[in-house]
Design a protein that fits this description.
The structure is a homodimer. Chain A has about 150 residues and is mostly helical. Chain A is about 65% helix and about 10% strand. In chain A, strands 1-3-2 form a 3-stranded antiparallel sheet. In chain A, a hairpin with a 7-residue loop joins strand 2 and strand 3. Chains A and B meet through helix 1, helix 2, helix 5 and helix 6 of A and helix 1, helix 2, helix 5 and helix 6 of B. Chain B binds a DNA duplex (30 and 30 nucleotides) through helix 1 and helix 4.
Chain lengths: ~150, ~150
Amino acid sequence: MDATAPQSPAGLRTTASWLLNQAAAHAGRLASAGFAAHDLRGYHFRLLASLAEDGPASQAALGRRCGIDRSDVVAAINDLAGRGLVVRAPDPADRRRNVISLTAAGADEAHRMADTVARVQDDLLAPLSSAERAQLIRLLTRLLEHHHNN
Amino acid sequence: MDATAPQSPAGLRTTASWLLNQAAAHAGRLASAGFAAHDLRGYHFRLLASLAEDGPASQAALGRRCGIDRSDVVAAINDLAGRGLVVRAPDPADRRRNVISLTAAGADEAHRMADTVARVQDDLLAPLSSAERAQLIRLLTRLLEHHHNN
DNA sequence: CGAAAACGTTGGCTGGACCAACGTTGGTAG
DNA sequence: CTACCAACGTTGGTCCAGCCAACGTTTTCG
């Protein structure tokens, strides 16, 4: 933007989007490793966690909650239903919708995954004090909130 | 894992790895949109930026600098070379290596991309004060450093 | 000298994020 | 009441980033 700017190194390594990318990639690797123990992947976890936290919902609503495209929700719910972690029932009140609910096994799995994820967080945030962790979470939350209702 | 823990919501939305994932995804979208104007993608930018900052290098070294797999460097350098942004020359001192260097056009493009990326950063970090931006960058850097030499 | 390592390259696979299209169902404006 | 439009689930496809295995060549090291 500013041709007069003395070519400040720009320094890939101090660029926020680069740092975010790398940090998220690392977090993703840790999380994936954790999920692998449950033979599940990111989408599955998000859906289970959302169902456990906020209760049953239609697939479209789940997608909105989790930031997953409708079409990807279909496949993930297929998987989860196939494993008996979730049930897909037509919504009597609106026949366009399927209501997705956790089974008992699904609630169990969600709980276990939450434990796994908690361990991953500790691992990921190991170098930060708890005040710093809170700060990081606060900053990221602000960022997302801003861009969510931009 | 502490059954005594009062079932603290775990709250997907307050999980560091979730927030990082979402923030990085958003940053990625912004960056991609910026790159699209140059008809290039993430890998291309990283390589150009690294070459502009730290000078010519072998493909393997570039991959290490940029966190890109050797095999992916091949394809990206093919693209860049095809556009005349970069030259691939055998290293006389070590015939295993190709030395990659920016052309004048490549240096130009790297400069323009840096401008684009700077704009993206401003957009991304809009909701944060400059002190907060610095703080965020500091925290992320600490995280990466720790996990880099874990 | 011989084994081990590094390099460039090919080819392939995964996961996450998207998008377009379709038929069905629901709501709503005329 | 009839159109029309919006939302839903579903299919099928694309794209990018990341990763891994294998190969032949070249270099380094024991």
